[in-house]
Design brief:
Layout (H helix, E strand, L loop, with lengths): L5 E3 L2 H12 L2 E5 L8 H13 L4 E6 L11 H14 L7 H8 L6 E5 L11 H5 L9 H7 L4 E8 L10 E3 L7 H11 L4 E6 L7 E2 L2 E3 L5 E3 L18 H11 L7 E4 L3 H15 L1 H11 L19 E6 L2 H8 L12 E5 L4 H9 L2 H4 L2 E3 L2 H4 L6 H7 L3 E6 L2 E3 L4 E2 L15 H10 L4 E5 L3 E4 L2 E4 L1 E2 L14 E4 L2 E4 L5 H9 L7 H10 L18 H13 L14 H16 L3 H13 L4 H9 L7 H19 L1
Parallel strand pairs: 1-10, 2-3, 2-5, 3-4, 5-7, 7-10, 8-14, 11-12, 11-15, 12-13, 13-14, 15-18, 16-21, 18-22
Antiparallel strand pairs: 5-6, 6-9, 16-17, 19-20, 22-23
Helix pairs in contact: 1-2, 8-9, 8-19, 9-10, 9-11, 20-22, 20-23, 21-23
GO molecular function: acetate CoA-transferase activity; hydrolase activity
Keywords: Hydrolase
Protein name: Acyl-CoA hydrolase
């Protein structure tokens, strides 16, 4: 550790300096997601590949990769988007080796959070996943003997000027801020190396660091690259129904955490409607059905005190709530404290367009601050009033257990991340609540399956931490309830196609009375009812497919919605044949024709392209009907 860093303009020269100092045993800690110094990582990885005498252990999370196409239609859709958004993002070579199963014996990659669904069926990734709470990752790094960190940093000034140079960890102070502090306080033998990228936003809070925090810095414009920016996914009617319900659970003057994804986007949109178009918000809530035990008239009103954001991930919705005057309650000069971010092109544009004074009210902090109450606990408790921690799940059992990160055969979908942290925090705070959101069903190969299940062989959050669960059919308040009450409440927000079977299982197990019946008000939980309630607002654009923007062209937005629907039907010929038949009969309108041209299917050649055209045309025209 030195008072000022050594600056380099060449990756290989910097790797030489690293190995000269550390020798041939390198235990490399990398930030989760966006904050990785890709060029340096690749240079060090290549050096270890070339020299089997180097032992390289990589400890990381959320290794970002450009999307992989699962079908010919997806390939036609994704290839131009990937070229536009990801060609300037350096692919991480260790990830390619893990995917192909060709990682050299002297290199190990250990990941505690996987890009959702992208590593199913890949043995090396599955075998080397570590199930770790986000707040425990720092200790795991230290216990593993980490001796090198490589971090992407943002310069305070684009020309690197200033008498006392400062850099920002930008998107990732999540673990690095604490690690750098511990390194300085305890004189830990960890080499701190960074790569400058002026395209990374300079963020305030614990992310703002002196240059003395770094031993070596790669500072060369030729190594700067575009940030990873996946487009937003479309928001469905189901997502919007969930968003409308959740928005009614958020107290004015309270604290808020939201996870990433289309449901999070829908929640933000509903909160904006509640604040800016209050009559419309109340009308939409009424259309969904007003007889809900969790409904609050007070929590339908606009925000006068404002919200404070305390979140692991700075999602795009928080930026929207700042600009629309919802997120205004300040804590220590900040309206949001967040641990990391990665977002769509519109996310980065929003950050860039914010006045500096506004952006500085977003304080990027370690997850030890956001995810835990430890450390200045009384101050945190005072700040985190009426906290609502909103996270998504894949399934919920009728006992109230949550499945969000893996499958019954132990295949890991993503990881627990900070979900447990926030649920535990909700119970620790006097008026905090955990809210788990999920669609009541999923469709695979054209067959609908319930996401409310009797039991499941994998659990992420145990049932004794059950709190509030929200589907498109309403909210179930489970905290402190008996098993019978929990089952009854979850059945009330289950799709009606699956209520009889689940109720019968509960009766057979003796968990509800033999004569119990689901209330008539909850026996019409059908997609058709949600469609009828919300489609008028969908048609007028009041509940849009991309409420926060997308990063896609107009044609690509239409295609994204269509391909999402087709993906759920893939493999089911009975479901696909009517779509193909409709596509063969229809003539495309101007919008659909533009979509077909984007997919190079306006003038199909051969049987396969005619089939793809019919599939797409049938789906697109049905969307517009």
């Amino acid at each position: 550790m030195s008072d000022s860093p050594r600056y380099f303009n060449d990756c290989d020269a910097l790797v030489d300096a690293i190995l000269q100092q550390l020798g041939n045993r390198v235990v490399l800690g990398l930030p989760l997601g966006l904050g990785k110094a890709n060029h340096l990582i690749n240079a060090l990885y290549r050096r270890a590949c070339a020299d089997p005498g180097i032992s390289l252990s990589i400890l990381t999370a959320l290794t970002l990769e450009r999307p992989h196409a699962g079908s010919e239609l997806e390939k036609r859709f994704l290839d131009p988007i990937s070229a536009r958004l990801f060609d300037d993002y350096p692919a991480l070579e260790y990830a390619r080796a893990v995917r192909s199963g060709e990682l050299p014996d002297n290199i190990v990659v250990k990941d505690f959070f996987l890009q959702s669904g992208q590593w199913l069926g890949f043995p090396l990734a599955q075998q080397n996943h570590a199930s770790i709470n986000y707040t425990h990752a720092l200790n795991e790094l230290l216990d593993s003997g980490v001796n090198l960190i490589l971090q992407l940093i943002a310069p305070q000034h684009s020309d690197y000027s200033g008498p006392e140079p400062r850099f920002s960890l930008g998107c990732n102070p999540d673990i690095s801020a604490d690690l750098l502090d511990r390194r300085r306080q305890d004189s830990l033998p960890i080499l701190s190396v960074a790569q400058v990228n002026s395209r990374l936003p300079f963020m305030a809070g614990a992310a703002d660091r002196p240059d003395s925090d770094f031993d070596m810095i790669l500072q060369e414009p030729g190594y700067e690259f575009e940030l990873f920016m996946p487009p937003n996914k479309p928001t469905s009617a189901t997502d919007h129904a969930i968003g409308l319900e959740v928005a009614n659970l958020i107290e004015d003057g309270g604290s808020l955490q939201i996870g990433i994804g289309s449901i999070g986007d829908a929640i933000t949109h509903s909160l904006v409607l509640r604040h800016q178009q209050n009559a419309l918000y109340k009308d939409l809530l009424d259309r969904l059905g007003s007889q809900r035990p969790t409904r609050s008239a007070a929590q339908c009103e606009p925000f006068t005190q404002g919200l404070y954001g305390v979140t692991e991930m700075l999602v795009e919705g928080f930026l929207e709530m700042i600009t629309t005057g919802i997120m205004t309650r300040e804590v220590d000069g900040a309206v949001v404290h967040a641990g990391f971010f990665v977002g769509s092109p519109t996310f980065y544009q929003r950050l860039a367009d914010m006045p500096a004074a506004t952006r500085n009210k977003i304080a990027m902090m370690p997850v030890s601050f956001t995810n835990d109450l430890y450390g200045d606990e009384q101050r945190k408790r005072k700040a985190r009033t009426a906290a609502r921690f909103v996270n998504s799940a894949m399934m919920v059992t009728l006992g109230g257990a949550v499945i969000s990160d893996g499958l019954a055969d132990y295949q890991v979908v993503s990881g627990v991340g900070g979900q447990y942290n926030f649920i535990a925090q909700a119970f620790a705070l006097e008026d905090g609540r955990s809210i788990i959101t999920l669609p009541s069903t999923r469709t695979r190969k054209g067959i609908r399956q319930s996401n409310i299940v009797w039991d499941y062989a994998h659990i992420t959050i145990p049932r004794h931490l059950r709190d509030i669960v929200v589907t498109e059919y309403g909210a179930a308040d489970l905290r402190g309830k008996t098993d019978a009450e929990v089952i009854n409440a979850l059945l009330a927000i289950t799709d009606s196609a699956f209520q009889p079977q689940l109720l019968e299982q509960a009766k057979k197990a003796g968990k509800v009375s033999a004569d119990y019946e689901i209330a008539p008000a909850h026996r019409n939980n059908t997609p058709e009812r949600i469609h009828q309630a919300l489609q008028p607002a969908r048609d007028t654009g009041q509940l849009p497919d991309f409420p926060l923007g997308s990063g896609l062209t107009r044609e690509e937005e239409h295609l994204a919605v269509a391909l999402s629907r087709l993906s759920s039907l893939a493999g089911n010929k009975r479901a696909l044949l009517p779509i193909i038949a409709a596509g063969l009969k229809r003539r495309p309108g101007p919008t659909t024709l533009a979509c077909l041209e984007r997919m190079q299917l306006a003038q199909p050649r051969g049987f396969a392209e005619r089939l793809y055209r019919a599939l797409l045309l049938g789906t697109l025209e049905t969307q517009r009907a």
